[in-house]
Amino acid sequence: MGAAGAFWGAGSVPIALLCLASVAAVVALSGVARRVLGALLVVVGLVGGFSGHWLAVVGGVLLAGSGVLQVALGGRMPKIGVGGQKARAHDPETEMWRALERGDDPTDDKPRGGPSSNE
């Protein structure tokens, strides 16, 4: 985010928007795709830093640094929606809600479609 602010202040709005979009992309991607994005950020940071404005230089250093981190540590960082998810044990309450969603009566011990006691 700091790199985006620096590039925005330097007048490099397209690079600032790329910085903001890369924040969402880093969270959504994983593995090789995240490392490719990191390499792209390094290149854009180095090229964008040469515009001459001191804020662009600061933004370029920040962006290239974040790209290096993505290349180095991108494989170990969790992907969005995957952190903390574990195989859950059988939860009777969840099964009851799923039965209701299917249209079954979770309190009925008889299988659906079988003879009922009201006949």
UniProtKB/TrEMBL annotation:
The keyword Transmembrane applies. The chain crosses the membrane at residues 6-29, 36-55. It comes from Lentzea jiangxiensis. It comes from the Bacteria. Residues 97-112 have a biased composition (Basic and acidic residues). Residues 97-119 are annotated as: Disordered. Keywords: Membrane, Transmembrane, Transmembrane helix. The keyword S-adenosyl-L-methionine does not apply. This is Tryptophan-associated transmembrane protein (Trp_oprn_chp).
